[in-house]
Design brief:
two-stranded antiparallel ribbon, about 10% helix
């Protein structure tokens, strides 16, 4: 059965804030929460200043995962850092200043109600 799924999304922009947190990644089905700086958004945070809605997709999770990975990897200056069955972590290096930003995607097993 094809259902509607969600991709839990966290985009961490640490280029101005220095290096990313050491605990970046997936921990107990949660992405690392945003720091207090304004250059971060996440769909799992309860902090309204950093909150965004998760991306939705139709169809099978595996196919959505493969398509998203392919699209992001095809963009300039993107490097896949970590991948498992439910998680992608990319680094994006800005073309002019060389800042590195982190982009994370978590494909939750939960589906919207």
């Amino acid at each position: 059965m094809r259902g509607l799924g969600v991709i839990i999304f966290c985009m961490l922009f640490f280029s101005c804030a220095g290096k990313p947190p050491e605990n970046i990644g997936l921990h107990n089905e949660q992405l690392t929460d945003c720091p207090n700086s304004p250059n971060c958004v996440a769909s799992q945070t309860k902090d309204a200043d950093h909150s965004i809605l998760p991306f939705e997709y139709k169809g099978e999770k595996k196919m959505a995962f493969i398509k998203l990975k392919k699209v992001i990897a095809s963009l300039d200056n993107m490097t896949l850092v970590t991948e498992n069955d439910q998680y992608l972590h990319f680094e994006c290096k800005s073309a002019i200043m060389g800042f590195v930003d982190d982009l994370e995607f978590y494909f939750s097993d939960e589906t919207p109600g």
